[in-house]
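Take a sample.
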Amino acid sequence: MAVRLSRAERRQQTRQELLTAAEACFVTRGFHASSVDQVAERAGYTKGAVYSNFASKEDLFFAVYERRVDQALTEVVPGLRQAGAERAFDWLATTTIERRGRDDGWLAVFFEFWAHVLRHPELRDRFAAIHARLLEPLADALRQLAEDRGLALPSDVTASQVVLAWNAMEVGLGLERLTQPQAVDGVVARRMGWLLLDAVVGAAEPSAGTEAAQQDRRIR
């Protein structure tokens, strides 16, 4: 016997099916080349169904991005905790490397939408807020790493800023890899990330009441 869904459940199902169709279109065609009509057709709904759930194509992309961030956090946060602060970035680098190739289509459209956001200031705050959600667990891991080593990060930089710089480098290397994969591999990306983190933590000062000055401050 088929289970009857409530109106709210049907609406949520429709929304998820539209998001899945939109992500497939964006990844395959790109943001600008994908139309609301194509998303609706792929999902098996009318164009009106799309606009009853999303205000615009940009709103639809943001919803796709938010869903991907939610999924990533579901995987990343437990993984970071299990790895521990000392090996958190090692674990994340390995996980990222394993996804390369499978996520190239998303990476390409992500860069495309990022450029689109730069030309539309009204979209920037929303984009930045979603982006920050993805980075905050990494900032927590960096704070924990410094605390575990009895260190205080330099006063002129926050954990969030360090992680933002680390992510910017990883994203930039990802962009380069799309155009010249022979020049950027997992080893290079991972090594560059560690060099940045080592430099920051290496410049940290011992916290009050610790013997961290006698310890090796390097992450690795």
Summary: The chain has two domains: 1-54, 58-214. The first strand starts at residue 151 and ends at 152. Residues 57-83 form the longest helix (27 residues). Strands lie at 151-152, 205-206.
